[in-house]
Every structure is written in C-alpha cells, then in structure tokens.
Design brief:
The structure is a single chain. The chain has 191 residues and is mainly beta. The protein has one domain: Jelly Rolls (Sandwich), CATH 2.60.120. It has helices at 32-37, 167-170, and strands spanning 2-5, 12-15, 19-21, 24-26, 46-52, 57-64, 72-78, 80-87, 98-104, 109-113, 117-123, 128-134, 143-145, 164-165. The strands form three sheets. It has a six-stranded antiparallel sheet with strand order 1-2-10-7-12-5, with no helix packed on it. Strands 6, 8, 9, 11, 13 and 14 form a six-stranded mixed sheet that branches. A two-stranded antiparallel sheet has the order 3-4. Strand 1 and strand 2 (12-15) form a beta hairpin. The longest helix is centred in the N-terminal third of the chain and has 6 residues, at 32-37.
Length: 191
C-alpha cells in the first residue's frame, strides 16, 4: 500500500496496490508497520460499516472530543462517496482547513483521519457501503460535530439535487475559529 500526504497536517491518503490475476485481485488495505513508518500509530478498536441507499446522502461532520478523540481510516467498498475532513486542532498549521476526495470501489483509496479532525461524506451513487476502522470506542457523551455547510469552512460539496441529511447533522452550531477547536493532550496529535 502507498501512503500519500494531503494538504492537511498529518492526514494521508492510502492507496492499495492490487495484485491481479484471472481470479481478480488481492490488496493490503491496512498495515500497522507501513503507517508507523509514516509517523502514524493506529490501534483499531472498532470496525464499522455504513450503508446508504441513495445518492446525496450526507453524513457529518462528526468527531469526538478529548479524551476520546479518534483516528479513522475510511474506505468505500461499494459505490462512491465524496469524503471530507476538517482540521480542528487549534495548534495545527492547517487549523480550520478542509480536504475532500472521492473514495470508491473502483479507485481503491482510503483516507486516514487524524485525531481532532471532523469527518463526513456525501454519497455519489446508489447503494454505497463505507467501512471505518476506528482507534477509540464510540462515546456518546463526547460526540460532537460541525455543520456540513458552515461558512467558517466553505466546503465545496458535489452538486446533487436533493440532499438527505439527518436532523442532528443539520443542527450543529456555528463554528467560531477564534474560540472553538480542540487542544489535544501532548502526543495525541495524529497517532
């Protein structure tokens, strides 16, 4: 697998290197040792799936606050999504910036989401299946989010006529870059 940097501090794209033959292909989608060589120390404690029936389903922008900040690796195994992350680490040089890319069953890309980042996605096709590897157990008392359309970030989402968004995701408060954001404990930045 190949690890490629993104414009955001510590976030990377993981690209599988399929070995193909007449049966199909084999590819490594996660390797703790390879990630560690890139300064990413990731222990998986949960593996989650999400399925979405319709294009235009938007989930996000979610994160957990300290001390339950989580790292994630997001992959799309059926269909396609536009995956977005926002750096909410106040001491980061890319604080408040976002990055997005298409993850699909065809391109075999995954996105590593460091601690202190918000994450969300919009489905681009029908019947999408997304797989999350997560470094921290889900803790509802430490769950938070920012609005997908918050002008503080100006995310350029793909144009789809009808968006499907949960009431919870529509109601996140406005983000204030001068007062909001996370101060992570030393050593928690990305691994």
């Amino acid at each position: 697998m190949l690890v490629q940097s993104t414009p955001l501090n510590h976030a990377v794209v993981i690209e599988m290197e399929p070995i193909q033959d007449s049966r199909g292909f084999f590819a490594r989608g996660f390797c703790k040792e390879t990630l560690a060589q890139h300064g990413i120390f990731f222990d998986v404690v949960q593996s989650n799936m999400a399925f979405n029936h319709l294009p235009g389903t938007l989930r996000g922008m979610h994160f957990q606050v300290p001390p339950f900040c989580e790292q994630k690796i997001i992959s799309c195994y059926q269909g396609a999504i536009y995956d977005v992350i926002i750096d909410l680490n106040r001491d980061s040089p890319t604080f408040g910036q976002w990055f997005g890319l298409t993850l699909s069953a065809e391109n075999h890309l995954s996105l590593y989401v460091p601690k202190g980042f918000a994450h969300g996605y919009q489905t681009l096709t029908e019947n999408t299946s997304i797989h999350y590897m997560v470094s921290e157990y889900y803790t509802s008392t430490h769950e938070s989010g920012v609005r997908w359309d918050d002008s503080a970030f100006g995310i350029d989402w793909p144009r789809i006529e009808e968006l499907i968004i949960s009431p919870k995701d529509k109601q996140w408060k406005d983000f204030n870059k001068s007062t909001d954001g996370m101060i992570l404990y030393e050593g928690e930045g990305h691994g």
